[in-house]
Amino acid sequence: MYQEHKLANGLKLITVPMAGTETTTLLVMFATGSRFESREQNGLSHFLEHMFFKGTTKRPDTMSISSALDNVGAEFNAFTSKEYTGYWIKTAGEHTELALDVLSDMLINSKFDENEINREKGVITEEINMYQDNPMWYIEEIFEALIYGDTPAGWDTAGTKENVAGFTREQFITYWQQQYGSDSATLILAGKLPENPEALIGRYFDGLNKSTYKKQLPTVDTFNGPKLKIHFKDTDQAHLSLGVRSVPYASADESTIKVLSVILGGSMSSRLFTQLRERNGLAYYVRCNQESYTDTGYMTTQAGVPTDKIEQAIKIILAEYSKLTTELVPDEELTRVKNLLKGKTPLSLESSDEVAEFYARQAVLLFEQENPRRGIIKPDELLKGIDGVRAEDIQALAKKLFRPENLNLAVIGPYKDSAPFEALLKL
């Protein structure tokens, strides 16, 4: 059973004891990311994440930080998204205090050395190149740019190469002081817990002060007809993302959209995996993703297909979208999908790091919402919501989502003529 606490400095703490594990995960997640940036700042959240590993007043360089954790076999990393940024250490329970010492030191006492900043610019530029050279990854960025346009929600989290090259130490300090405070952070301690964790964490994180927190800008998201974006690349395989705007985080339809997306492309027995790969041999990878932000969301099907058969693939996807609006999902299929989700949930929460992220993501996204529909839910409550989804709920949501004016198609491939694709975007 998880417990929520609030420390004297306002830091939110969630402790999640787990029986039968010898590991502990410490995760600090801040309610900030690339959606909180201006155009000039785009990429700063992600770059700042890198800089916390570059040295503190106590541990002056990257080697000092990494060797302290490597010495006890700990795993550690960080991640930046559009709405949150997280820093975590997973270690044997006996080394929990060391993890608290190192991570608090990084987040409170980082030096942001100018030489390190200049050196890291090359690293991040290569990270951007890596993503842009991999269409299977980059198609998601193209799709979000298509539906959200020239807004923070539509910009790449890593930013532009021009921005990365121009960032100054002063920008890092300003953003850190503005966004990284006890009021915008949630700390999760999951797994094998130490005695009196609240007092222990308070000792190490007492120096995390309140920030001058700036909220993200609302998403610009208008329904103005089907949208298409082609990113020309001379590839042997075309990559497509065909989707619709869907529901925001913690929506009343959150369980229904989970079930709907799995029906379409969430398993090897899903409709689109069967149609695109097994019956027509058009794709190796097929997946259906549901992404929910605090004030918006989308659901999309992604696949890599032969360049000369992309139109056939698009027609198959649209046919399956349309079918959900006219036919109820059969009981046998619905039961199978629910069982899949109920079976995968405990598998996804077997380790302390997975449990920590499960609670941290909820806490931060609910904090960002003006009027959250619900509070933090436990895994059994998640499963209960999935169990309650009816075929009629799926059809009703499908009718809202799968409309011609709500279609969006992003393509990476050797195409210069958009007309054939525009003609296909209809239901």
UniProtKB/TrEMBL annotation:
A Pfam family recorded for this sequence: Peptidase_M16_C
GO molecular function, one term: metal ion binding
Peptidase M16 N-terminal domain boundaries: 20-159
A biological process from GO: proteolysis
Domain Peptidase M16 C-terminal: 167-341
The family this protein is said to belong to: Belongs to the peptidase M16 family.
Protein name listed in UniProt: Peptidase M16
